[in-house]
Amino acid sequence: MTTPSSQSKFRPILVTVLLLGGFMTFLFMYIKPSPQWLYEPVKSVVCSDQFTSTTEQVTSKSIQSNTTNGQVTPAKSDEKKTILLVWLVPFGQQNDLNFCKSRFNMDYCIITTDKNMYSKADGLLFHHRDIRGDLSNLPQTQRPPYQKWIWFNMESPTHSGNFAGLDNFFNLTLNYHRDADIPARYGYLVKTQNEKKFELPSKSKLVCWIVSNYNPNHARTKYYNELRQHIEVSTFGRGFGRYVSDGDYANIVSGCKFYLSFENSIHKDYITEKMYRPLSLGTVPVVLGTSRQNYEDFVPGDSFIHTNDFKSPKELADYLHVLDKNDTLYMRYLDWKKLYEVKGTAFWIEHACRACEYLRTDNEYKAFRSLRSWYWG
């Protein structure tokens, strides 16, 4: 039998149960939460399409991913991807499109050759040597207003077609010119953290030259033909019927005291791997190209020998003979290697990474109105 006193003890509990029941009834009648919200954990977003997850801003509650060769690489949750579409693959040369991430840790840059990405790309890259003279292989649709078109060329004006219609077409330039919107070099020197000891590779040849395109009308060929009358020059390459593979190149050049770093044409800032590769291999380059002052904008003045410093090829040959007999004088041309090291660039993909970085960091609208005047003069 329940007494009045016992009823009073249970009254607060009963009131609490009634209130809780009323609240739950209200919750399910009017708010109606999703069963999935109640019972399933939040899942990460993992996309199988390399580009699907890269065109939208990601919130802090999800993870965007790129899929490359079956490997899923998480992107930063608060970063939007920058997409660069290589419209004309340079010389059809395929490359690792994940290079920007693996080499420079640029997880935010997507390089693609898939033209289906046209409407989503932040920029398009056009390799000049692959543009048809009638421009028929360029996009025929109107450019999206946010998209930038980049003219890319590492060849000199002498060996680049000057097509009509190039003006008022591009937004940006990617070129070896220092005043290009996106400067791109064939190589560069980087200061080492500590001075290091340089060991000279074994030398079995005095002067070497490797050339594929041997043209008797080129200035470099005419200079060589006179120079070889006064000093022995070991020649290699298709131009001399002696093909050199990439693997053989280093062995040949490192075994030469001097290398003829003769450019195929002479233009400001046009300094190619013909100089940087011998420098990296411990060989003194003898350069023929732009002015000495221009070379010194990129490398130390005592790291190379310039043909312009001599009145004739014979005078140059005489000087090389002097250096050959004097190790102290010769090694002065290699002292810089104690403080610097040469870095090469990976064509074309490294330049694409620079373009992607530019698109990401520079939001200014630009239009290049006079490409032909700027480049061909």
UniProtKB/TrEMBL annotation:
GO MF: 4-galactosyl-N-acetylglucosaminide 3-alpha-L-fucosyltransferase activity; alpha-(1->3)-fucosyltransferase activity
One GO-annotated biological process of the protein: lipid metabolic process
Keywords per UniProt: Disulfide bond, Glycoprotein, Glycosyltransferase, Golgi apparatus, Lipid metabolism, Membrane, Signal-anchor, Transferase, Transmembrane, Transmembrane helix
Locations listed in the record: Golgi apparatus, Golgi stack membrane; Golgi apparatus, trans-Golgi network membrane
Mode of membrane association: Single-pass type II membrane protein
Reactions performed catalytically: an alpha-L-Fuc-(1->2)-beta-D-Gal-(1->4)-beta-D-GlcNAc derivative + GDP-beta-L-fucose = an alpha-L-Fuc-(1->2)-beta-D-Gal-(1->4)-[alpha-L-Fuc-(1->3)]-beta-D-GlcNAc derivative + GDP + H(+); a beta-D-galactosyl-(1->4)-N-acetyl-beta-D-glucosaminyl derivative + GDP-beta-L-fucose = a beta-D-galactosyl-(1->4)-[alpha-L-fucosyl-(1->3)]-N-acetyl-beta-D-glucosaminyl derivative + GDP + H(+); alpha-N-glycoloylneuraminosyl-(2->3)-beta-D-galactosyl-(1->4)-N-acetyl-beta-D-glucosaminyl-(1->3)-beta-D-galactosyl-(1->4)-N-acetyl-beta-D-glucosaminyl-(1->3)-beta-D-galactosyl-(1->4)-beta-D-glucosyl-(1<->1')-ceramide + GDP-beta-L-fucose = alpha-N-glycoloylneuraminosyl-(2->3)-beta-D-galactosyl-(1->4)-N-acetyl-beta-D-glucosaminyl-(1->3)-beta-D-galactosyl-(1->4)-[alpha-L-fucosyl-(1->3)]-N-acetyl-beta-D-glucosaminyl-(1->3)-beta-D-galactosyl-(1->4)-beta-D-glucosyl-(1<->1')-ceramide + GDP + H(+); alpha-D-galactosyl-(1->3)-beta-D-galactosyl-(1->4)-N-acetyl-beta-D-glucosaminyl-(1->3)-beta-D-galactosyl-(1->4)-beta-D-glucosyl-(1<->1')-ceramide + GDP-beta-L-fucose = a neolactoside IV(3)-alpha-Gal,III(3)-alpha-Fuc-nLc4Cer + GDP + H(+)
Residue ranges of domain Fucosyltransferase C-terminal in the record: 201-374
SUPFAM superfamilies documented for this protein: UDP-Glycosyltransferase/glycogen phosphorylase
GO CC terms: Golgi cisterna membrane
One Pfam family it belongs to: Glyco_tran_10_N
Transmembrane segments: 12-31
Domain of life: Eukaryota
Domain Fucosyltransferase N-terminal per the UniProt entry, residue ranges: 80-187
Signal peptide: none
EC number, UniProt record: 2.4.1.-
Pathway: Protein modification; protein glycosylation; Glycolipid biosynthesis
Self-association state and partner proteins as the record states: Homodimer.
Family, similarity comment: Belongs to the glycosyltransferase 10 family.
Name of protein: Fucosyltransferase
Protein's organism: Oryzias latipes
